[in-house]
């Protein structure tokens, strides 16, 4: 049997195959972060035929202070639910499941858009980012929970917590940015304290049967940054806290590794993490050919394969991949 075409049960979700479209920045929301017809058309196009089993809808900001991009999707208040429900319905009507990624950009927030100095776990020496106080961290945990509740209310099948690519939770995770001396900084257990609080808050809001994914920037690839050894600990703790899926990507350097171009270049990270958790693992990273995706699954590097840029460039990529493997 072709591994890429095998169904997979994740909690209460049954996925028809192992193909995932990871979060892609579309810049198709309106100025207020609401779903537009342009965005609906984009996702209808990408899910035509249901060849992609799971769509993870793009990086969506949970509060104004966490906004990264001018036309970024918003999950900040209940007025967003109606449009997001149309988006979930559009994806479901084509036969795919959908999860929505929620995020706070932290120190990477767009100062023009948010109208104030961005926040992070620690202040930057040039005063371009200020340190969050304990009360603000507590408030943020609640904001994440509220956002996840809206995702569920909008009819999505799950929610994904973004802790990769240098955004706020990745900033807490990385010792290169997190210089706190309280119990949110220091060793890896303290640096993931906010993650665990957010997971627990979200679970209390959405209930035990709603899928929670977490995208982990599993290595910074920078001296003094996070390493796979950190992520083996973090992944195990996230599993204990109730996460259902882990999506493995890069940390402060984003979704690439300098000088590395082979398909599935985060595979050493996902393979190591698979050995310490029983959760389904999504692997992304430069995958452009169906046979490469199939090989990564056969070699037990991951359970699900995320194909982003290839699907962005070619809406028929998944259809071609599925038909090729069926031959």
TrEMBL record:
A Pfam family per the record: Oxidored_FMN
InterPro entries: Aldolase_TIM, NADH_flavin_oxidoreductase, OxRdtase_FMN_N
Domain NADH:flavin oxidoreductase/NADH oxidase N-terminal: 4-325
Molecular function terms from GO: FMN binding; oxidoreductase activity
EC supergroup of this enzyme: oxidoreductase
Record's keyword terms, sorted: Flavoprotein, Oxidoreductase
EC number(s) on file: 1.-.-.-
Name of the protein this chain belongs to: NADH oxidase
Protein's organism: Ruminiclostridium hungatei (Clostridium hungatei)
């Amino acid at each position: 049997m072709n591994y890429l075409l095998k169904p997979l049960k994740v909690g209460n979700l049954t996925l028809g195959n192992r193909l995932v479209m990871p979060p892609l920045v579309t810049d198709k929301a309106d100025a207020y972060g609401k779903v537009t017809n342009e965005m609906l058309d984009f996702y209808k196009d990408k899910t035509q035929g249901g060849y992609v089993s799971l769509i993870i809808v793009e990086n969506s900001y949970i509060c104004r202070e966490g906004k990264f991009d001018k036309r970024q999707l918003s999950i900040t208040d209940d007025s967003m639910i109606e449009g997001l429900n149309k988006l979930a319905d559009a994806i479901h009507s084509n036969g795919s499941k959908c999860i929505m990624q929620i995020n706070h950009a932290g120190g990477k927030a767009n100062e023009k858009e948010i109208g104030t100095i961005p926040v992070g776990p620690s202040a930057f020496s040039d005063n371009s980012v200020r340190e969050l106080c304990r009360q603000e961290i507590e408030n943020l945990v609640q904001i994440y929970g509220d956002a996840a509740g809206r995702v569920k209310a909008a009819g999505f099948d799950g929610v994904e917590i973004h802790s990769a690519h240098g955004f706020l939770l990745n900033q807490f995770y990385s010792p290169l940015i997190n210089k706190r001396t309280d119990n949110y900084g220091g060793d890896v257990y303290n640096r993931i304290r906010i993650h665990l609080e957010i997971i627990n808050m979200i679970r209390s809001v959405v209930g035990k049967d709603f899928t929670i994914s977490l995208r982990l920037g599993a290595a910074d690839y920078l001296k003094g940054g996070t390493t796979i050894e950190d992520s083996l600990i973090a992944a195990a703790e996230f599993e204990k806290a109730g996460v259902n899926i882990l999506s493995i990507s890069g940390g402060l350097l984003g979704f690439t590794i300098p000088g590395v171009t082979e398909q599935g270049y985060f595979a050493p990270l996902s393979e190591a993490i698979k050995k310490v958790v029983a959760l389904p693992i999504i692997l992304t990273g430069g995958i452009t050919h169906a046979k490469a995706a199939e090989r990564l699954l056969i070699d037990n590097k991951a359970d699900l394969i995320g194909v982003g840029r290839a699907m962005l460039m070619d809406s028929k990529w998944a259809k071609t991949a599925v038909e090729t493997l069926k031959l």
